[in-house]
Amino acid sequence: MKKILVGGSVKGSILKTEMPINFLGTVEKKTGVISDKNHELFKISIRGSILLFPSGIGSSVGAYTIYSIKSNNSAPLAMICKKADLTVATGCALANIPLVIISEEEFSSYKTGEEVSLDTRAKKIIKII
User: Fold this and answer.
1) Where are the domains of the chain?
2) What is the pLDDT of residues 58-87, one digit of tens each?
3) Any idea which residues carry the catalytic annotation?
4) Residue 116: in which H helix or E strand, if any?
C-alpha cells in the first residue's frame, strides 16, 4: 500500500478493471451498475465490491456521484487505485469509502473474485484463502 487517502477496514471481493472509471457518466447512481457500453465492466454492479481500477477520469462532479451511490447503498466497500485523482479522492472522503493507492506491481497481483481484507490502520491488504 503506497498511500492511504481515506481510512477504513473492510473485507470483500475484488472487482478489477484495467480501464479508468468516469463516475459521472458511467455509474448509475441508484444501482451502482456500469452503464457505459464501451467499458469492460458494462452491466456489472460495483455495489459491495472492493473496486480495483487504475484511476478516475472525467468531471469533478463525479465526486457527488460517488456520494450518491453511497447514499443509495450502491457503492463499493472500498476503492483501490494506481493513481490518485481529485474526483475519486473527494468522492470517497465525502462518502467515507476507504481509498488506497497501490503500486503497479500490487495492482497486477490482484484478480476479480479474490477475497481480501483491507485494513488501513495496519496498512495491509491481505488475500483471504
Assistant:
1) 3-128
2) 888 999 999 999 999 999 999 999 998 999
3) 59
4) strand 115-119
Sheet with strand 50-53: strands edge to edge: 3-6, 99-101, 78-81, 50-53, 9-16, 115-119, 124-128
Mean of pLDDT values over 100-112: 97
Distance CA(97)–CA(129), nearest Å, equals: 24
Q: What nine digits make up the cell of 19?
A: 480501464
Q: 7-29: per-residue pLDDT in tens?
A: 999 999 999 999 999 999 899 99
* Dist. CA 66–CA 94, nearest whole Å: 8
Return the C-alpha cell found at 13: 471481493
* pTM score of the predicted model: 0.95
Torsion of CA 74, 80, 83, 86, to 10 degrees: 40
Q: What angle do CA 35, 20, 114 make, to 5 degrees?
A: 85
Class of the 3-128 domain?
Answer: alpha beta
